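In response to reviewer comment 3 from the previous cycle, which asked for concrete evidence that the modeling workflow produces usable outputs, we include below a single protein chain processed end to end. The sequence was submitted unchanged, and the resulting structure tokens are shown without manual editing.
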Amino acid sequence: MIKLFRNTRKNLLAEGKTTKYLKYAIGEIILVVIGILIALSINNWNQNRKEAIEEKAILKTLLQNLNAAKKQSEALISEEETLKISLIRLLGIDANPSKKNDTIIPDSIFKTTVWDLQSDQPTFNAYNNLKNTNKLSLIKSKKINEKFTDLEFYLNRLNDVLEDRLSVHQIRVDNILENDINFIPLVKSSVPTINIEYEPQNNYNQLLKVKRIRNLLGMKLDFTQDAIDHRINLDKEIKDLITLIELELNKK
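The workflow returned the following structure tokens.
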């Protein structure tokens, strides 16, 4: 094709047909430009198609991760709620308190209520990996990108609350188990083979009348409610993101 164009130009010049040569040359340039534009258009179309395929794969990966995170989130909220109920009952401040103030409190119940603390968070490995590799830029939806920003905000807020609670717990609440009771009977629930027959038994009802101890457990209850509230906020962001991604995938 190039050889044909070259021969045609030579013939026109040889015949002295300058005007026709110029018109032909301009026409040739236009054809070349059109060819380049078509090639660029095809290249862009292929690039957009590849990016669309990759974006869909990314959204599917994120959706899978978010569904797993949702299950983790719901389980963690349930554990926090269980701890909250245990603290309320141990302090005897539930809405319908028992009239019996001398109800025996088992060692295992006292141990789990005072000792246990949930510091885990839902994991977002797929999102973090994509963020580190700059792949999130392939997601075209502005709403989805904004929602992930919101997710990070609520995740950081939850992390702050959990760290504050853990710090207070380690410094103050664990002190109860170290200094105010005989801890050996509490070990029986996790090491059932030990003999605690001659160990001094704890009077938890009497212990729970001490102002300092009630206040420390009250602080743990307050922190736990705060953690529940922040976990619920994060859980809502996770579910909103799942809905947005599902809608986006249905469009593709």
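The chain has one domain: 3-250. We consider this sufficient to address the reviewer's concern, and the full set will be provided in the supplementary archive.
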